[in-house]
Amino acid sequence: MSPRPDRGSAAAPQDVAATTDNVTIRWDNAALQAIRVTRLGPPIVARALAVAHTAMYDAWAAYDDQAVGTRLGGSLRRPAVERTLASKNEAVSFAAYRALVDLFPTQTPLFNDLMASLGYDPENRSTDVVTAAGVGNLVAAAVIAFRHHDGANQLGDLHPGAYSDYTGYAPVNDPDHINDPNRWQPLRISDGHGGTVTPGFIAPHWGRVVPFALTSDSQFRPPEVGNLFPFGGYRVQAEQILHYSARLTDIQKAIAEYWADGPNSELPAGHWMLFGQFVSQHDGHTLDQDVKLFFALANAVFDAGIVAWDCKRAYD
Length: 316
Description:
- The chain is mainly alpha-helical.
- It has helices at residues 23-38, 42-61, 85-103, 108-118, 132-147, 232-246, 250-260, 267-283, 287-314, and strands at residues 189-190, 196-197.
- It has a single domain, classed as Vanadium-containing Chloroperoxidase, domain 2.
- It contains nine helices and two strands; from the N terminus they run H-H-H-H-H-E-E-H-H-H-H.
- A two-stranded antiparallel sheet has the order 1-2.
- A hairpin with a 5-residue loop joins strand 1 and strand 2 (196-197).
């Protein structure tokens, strides 16, 4: 399996037992396809994957003898007789569906198709925990309610526009003027159609998003940044970058392009999910193993995004 396979659409209708991918992988692929189409920013994508996989984990936890959910703890634990693969598949799928529809509403048809291929009715909105669908719907609602007010501004209630900045950030420099060489400068680039575009700072408020495991957004922020203008190290590092860029081999260019994760890709966070899928298939993971793997992986990448964006904003 390639670390970046072409798995851009939901699986064709088939019995879930007939596919080599468990439902965690299938929902992860649906999420990655939604990411490629909607083209959200990198930290927003990382959060979306964390929300979806957290909902899946919380649903699965109800059918494990020890695991506890992130929002409802162990209060939904089902009797041993109900802890079947069929129940886990259904609960995980309903949780994933509700979370992803909330995160990517324009991609609802994609998620509906996957639900149909798995034999589930997306109109089943029961929250009766006697049913697996009810467990999935209930935990997803709890995760969604928490994340709607985590500082990401998903609903646009802190500032008009989903995920828009509400901190009043404005760059010191503009594309035509450098007022401070140590600060970020927006660049004017080709739009691919004969014109130009100047991308803004994506999500400058992201340091205010509630993390998964961090004690604070600035937990790993460097105390200072070295080699600032006008000191000698500033020019040395700039010249090093120019030197390396001018001498890239074809192999190095291919490597750089592979890691670029630009528009129409699953972006860095999604790229890590593909690595997780590779590990899953290579090691022959079960649903139980993958729910835990992707829960941990997605939330680690989510927190890493908060740390990175905190540093980007603090030392823009």
